[in-house]
Design goal:
- The protein has two helices and nine strands.
- The N terminus is likely disordered.
- The chain has a five-stranded mixed beta sheet with strand order 3-9-8-5-6, with no helix packed on it. It has a four-stranded antiparallel beta sheet with strand order 2-1-4-7, with no helix packed on it.
- It folds into two domains: 30 residues, no CATH class; 136 residues, Immunoglobulin-like.
- With 174 residues, the protein is mostly beta strands.
- Helices cover 13% and strands 36% of the residues.
- It is globular, with a radius of gyration of 18 Å.
Length: 174
């Protein structure tokens, strides 16, 4: 099978998944294994962290600081970082949310992470992707952040659509 045909098959599968309406296929990162992984083989994420004032936030937080959070994850791409299509952070927060919204069951969302010297990234191209929470909306450290568990999960996507493993951080606001 030629490279063009392989690309067409991959594109067709991605289009089929995108149009299927099965959201579990769109948001469940795959860990994959074995030699059948294809060109994205080896793409992985690790060292997920939530930082406030440059210090990792781990375990339990008893009060907010009002400082912005910086979220980061290390991406390893054996074929080079240019093969990484995107790095995503999925997050969930307890409710009621501190966005000022009416939700009582919490808030879930996603944010893209960057390795280009923006969004809190201090060294472009080093494989450490960042997202700066500019409005103190998704961190457990906010002054008005509700008590409960905050989940942050990171994954990367190869240019061929294959997803990496997931690296996660859980912080409890008491």
């Amino acid at each position: 099978m030629t490279l063009t045909k392989i690309g067409a098959v991959v594109l067709g599968v991605v289009a089929l998944v995108a149009c299927s309406g099965d959201s579990s296929m769109m948001t469940s990162p795959s860990t994959g294994s074995g030699s059948s992984q294809g060109p994205g083989q080896g793409l992985s994420v690790s060292d997920a962290a939530v930082l406030v004032r440059g210090v990792p936030v781990q375990g339990r937080v008893t009060q907010g600081t009002g400082d912005r959070a910086l979220f980061q994850v290390r991406v390893t791409a054996p074929a080079g970082l240019s093969t990484v299509a995107r790095v995503v952070m999925e997050y969930s927060q307890p409710g009621p949310n501190h966005h000022g919204g009416p939700m009582m069951g919490g808030y879930n969302g996603t944010a893209l992470c960057y390795d280009d010297g923006t969004h809190g990234d201090d060294m472009p191209g080093d494989g450490i992707y960042h997202y700066m929470d500019p409005d103190d909306q998704i961190g457990c450290h906010g002054l008005n952040a509700p008590m409960g568990e905050y989940h942050y999960s990171f994954w990367a996507e190869h240019m061929n659509g294959q997803r990496s493993n997931t690296a996660s951080v859980v912080v409890v606001r008491e």
